[in-house]
């Protein structure tokens, strides 16, 4: 199974590298959202709760953009049929796509977080960095676990572009709640405070539960 | 037995319970519409079957 | 098949609900700080609890469909989710009325029940959209079941996380918790809860019977007349 995951993952990453379809767009969208926030909130800088919120909403929307395109190649070029014929565990597609999305999100964060620090953040980022990386990772895992599942549900329906955000956003609200609550003390005005452990635990639990559920039901989505 | 106060509080409580009642009644109304359609379909079916039986009686050689 | 026992159930429901609300207005004492407005509690909270259970039950039915591929389970899930969504609507409206009466605002972000239900309501609103957008009946049932399972698991998690988030803001609850209630209120509450649960089961059986009968009539029509409905109706509901 691991080899299948590796193979699909490599194919997706290579495809993305060559065509550069999704990741640049998602990154630019993320940064643009930050700029829009500046105008929408009418503030030169943000910190604490507000900063955490702005950061996570921008990531969430950039992720929505990527979700819509996640299975497009498979759907349009018969990749699903080819995949179903191969003698491999079907959930390997889920794992591979989740890892691919995770990679994209990490790349986007590498661009957007510095942009955020320069454009909008009041307090310094260096102290907060290790904690921030952890929260980003756990939050991203949640987005990937739920997002890939929702994207797979949406790809076969007629109203694909509408269904994916409509399903994903409510399902991801707990991730937003927990991630913002965990990030806010890191971006506090007086310098980074301690990382609240209970929210990290919540994120980890959410990730585990939804990854398990997705793992269990993904097979049933791919049957025809 | 407390008298029902007709002041502010009473209106809100009444509104809440009325919303519940309204939802219930609208649901029942929609379901009764479905039942009516079901009855109509069944009478149509019965009529069609009777017609077919009558036709078969009239022409016993012709197999329907 | 579904109609069996429906009459008894309906009678029991009417009896329990009438008893519950008679108790609410004629026996249960008024609460200390909220006064008469607190009576909404006996309507709002049972609706919420039954709706939450209904959503989870829909998830279980969806899981059973995925295991057995028997269309009946998909129908059961559809009806359960459909009824719970109506109840959720009621929860939001009655909660809003309660909020306005108690605190003067039509919405309270620090009331975890209201906020959770808003999220859940928005999520399940997509259920019918999803069903409607898939034409193939078998795939529609499969995808809807996957949705029901994921969403059903989401409901309790969402509730827990929203509650966690609220406990850091000063919780200005409408008193939807049942902790520390005098015994008369608790008794009335339990009867109201039982009545609401009976109502749910009654309406569920009622709708299942109606849909099942409709499916049988359609099948009969197909066999006897060789044609389906003159005007095929597109609907989000599963057909057996």
Question: Would you kindly provide a written description of the structure presented here, covering whatever features stand out?
Answer:
The complex is a heterotrimer of chains A (224), B (64) and C (240). With 224 residues, chain A is an all-alpha fold. Chain A is 79% helix and 0% strand. Chain A has one domain. The radius of gyration of chain A is 18 Å and the shape is globular. The two termini of chain A are 21 Å apart. The mean pLDDT of chain A is 85. Chain B is mostly helical and 64 residues long. Chain B is rod-shaped and about 80 Å long. Chain B starts with 7 loop residues before the first helix and ends in a 6-residue tail after the last helix. Chain C contains 6 helices and no strands. The chains are: A mainly alpha (224), B mainly alpha (64), C mainly alpha (240). At the B-C interface, helix 1 of B face helix 1, helix 2, helix 3 and helix 6 of C.
Largest sheet of chain C: none
Q: Approximately how much beta-strand content do the residues of chain B carry?
A: under 5%
Q: What is the total tally of β strands of chain C?
A: 0
Helix content of chain C: over 70%
Structural category of chain B is mainly alpha
> Biggest sheet of chain B, in brief?
none
First-residue to last-residue Cα separation of chain B: 73 Å
Regarding quaternary structure, what we see is: heterotrimer
Categorize the overall geometry of chain C.
globular
Determine Rg of chain B (CA atoms, Å): 26 Å
Element-level helix/strand string of chain C: HHHHHH
Count of domain modules of chain C: 1
Beta-strand portion of chain C reads under 5%
Alpha carbon gap, first and last residue of chain C: 15 Å
